[in-house]
């Protein structure tokens, strides 16, 4: 191995190649070694010694003129100076005063459950069945009401993603919207559970209008109320259970996208009205204020006040009698 003797510093410097980042080695410092080769302490990151026998000594610093080293050093320095934005992920907190994306809430067009003589069909085992799909009138609703409403919000002008439940009526609605707005199928992101219709347990198979009335009366009393458990495996969910699901899908979207338009398509109104009530900080027992008819569209409205994460303090001189 060839070597170069620096006369003033009395240090022998090997000219073999080492991992390149910069081309300077301060020979007056104690030089650590890597694989038997000197490595500089004066430079940030790795350093290199002169290669190909081209070097000079100036003020105790060995300078390299190797083109390879200069080029590689420049590339690595450029990469090191390019800072990436830190990734972040967290659960969306309600009420929400600021979100990274814009959200459009869409209820699927009329399904067979929504007919006057319709029956509750919320068992997820059959959600991809044609019996849970759009009626002919439902298709007309999406074309005549839903698509124009979405277009009026300017969604088609910017990048948009459609997140439909894989419930048959929701996915059919999403496909129609995508086709009419000129969005590619790659922009349809199927959601497999978080946007499903609210499970109503023992009410499964009941008359739609009658069940809606009874469930609404119980919901108005307690957001934790759950329908009785059925025998066919249909979930029986409270409003709080639905809130857990919509919080999950919002958190995923907020982590995955930034500055985009996201269209959420759900098969029933409860999922969307609970989300809107939570975003505004409204008592979930009043979620029906934000109900959507089949084919209805609403932009998610945010709260004026941000979520308060500070600890709550209650004045209670005689606990637990004063704690409700």
Automatic annotation (TrEMBL):
Region (Disordered): 1-20
Descriptive protein name: Phosphoglycerate mutase
PANTHER family named among the record's database cross-references: PHOSPHOGLYCERATE MUTASE FAMILY PROTEIN
Signal sequence, renumbered to the chain: none
Superkingdom to which the source organism belongs: Eukaryota
Membrane-spanning parts: none
Coiled-coil annotated spans: none
A Pfam family: His_Phos_1
């Amino acid at each position: 191995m060839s070597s170069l003797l620096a006369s003033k510093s009395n240090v022998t410097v090997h000219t073999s190649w080492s991992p390149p980042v910069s081309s300077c080695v301060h020979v007056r410092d104690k030089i650590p070694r890597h694989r038997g080769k000197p490595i500089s302490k004066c430079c940030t990151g790795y350093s290199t010694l002169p290669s190909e026998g081209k070097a000079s000594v100036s003020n105790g610093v060995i300078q390299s003129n190797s083109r390879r080293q200069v080029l590689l050093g420049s590339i690595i320095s450029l990469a090191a100076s390019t800072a990436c934005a830190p990734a972040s992920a967290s659960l969306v907190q309600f009420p929400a005063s600021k979100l990274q994306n814009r959200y459009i809430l869409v209820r699927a067009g009329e399904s067979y459950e929504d007919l006057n003589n319709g029956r509750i069909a919320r068992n997820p085992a059959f959600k991809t069945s044609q019996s849970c799909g759009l009626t002919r009138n439902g298709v007309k609703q999406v074309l005549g009401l839903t698509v124009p409403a979405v277009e009026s919000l300017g969604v088609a002008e910017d990048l948009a993603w459609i997140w439909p439940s894989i419930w048959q009526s929701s996915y059919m609605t999403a496909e129609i919207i995508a086709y009419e707005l000129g969005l590619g199928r790659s922009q349809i992101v199927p959601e497999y559970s978080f946007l499903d219709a609210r499970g109503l347990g023992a009410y499964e198979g009941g008359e739609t209008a009658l069940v809606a009335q009874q469930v609404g009366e119980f919901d108005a009393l307690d957001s934790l109320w759950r329908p009785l458990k059925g025998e066919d495996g249909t979930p029986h969910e409270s409003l709080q259970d639905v809130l857990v699901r919509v919080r999950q899908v919002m958190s995923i979207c907020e982590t995955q996208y930034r500055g985009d338009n996201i269209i959420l398509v759900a098969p029933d109104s409860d999922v969307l009205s609970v989300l809107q009530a939570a975003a505004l900080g409204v008592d979930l027992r009043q979620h029906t204020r934000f109900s959507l008819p089949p084919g209805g569209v609403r932009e998610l409205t945010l709260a004026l006040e941000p979520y308060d994460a500070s600890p709550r303090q209650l004045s209670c001189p005689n606990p637990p009698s004063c704690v409700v």
